[in-house]
Amino acid sequence: MTTRPGAESSLRPFPAGVEKIMPRYEFYCPSCGETFEKRLPYDSKLDEVVCPSGHRPVRRIYSAPAVIYKGHGFYVTDHPAGGSTPSREPRS
């Protein structure tokens, strides 16, 4: 298999001191009642996670993601009073 010259140089590792971005998962240990977080790669097996006290199995806690809505149309104050539909005219 051949690669084009210079293809390897485009794959750069993360700079020193920069942490790889990995999802943070929250877990609950039913044995000791502790709640803890772990950063794990996307392809990791979550059923192999052990709590900080060494207990297994642990349960994953699902929570709503943090979402920030930007722009107009997301707040009550962005719509006219009386429940009418906003006009399609562009704002100036």
Write the layout of secondary structure elements.
Blueprint: E1 24-28, E2 35-39, E3 59-61
Antiparallel strand pairs: 1-2, 1-3
User: Which shape, going by the Cα principal axes?
Assistant: elongated
The number of distinct β-strands equals 3
Strand content: 5-15%
Poorly predicted residue ranges: 6-10
| Overall mean pLDDT | 75
Percentage of residues assigned to helices? under 10%
Short overview:
The chain is an all-beta fold and 92 residues long.
Structural key phrases:
92 residues, mainly beta, three-stranded antiparallel β-sheet
Structure notes:
By secondary structure, the protein is mainly β. The protein has a domain of 60 residues. Helices cover 0% and strands 14% of the residues. The chain contains no helices and 3 strands. It has a 3-stranded antiparallel beta sheet, with no helix packed on it. A hairpin with a 6-residue loop joins strand 1 and strand 2. The relative contact order is 0.14. About 5% of the residues have low confidence.
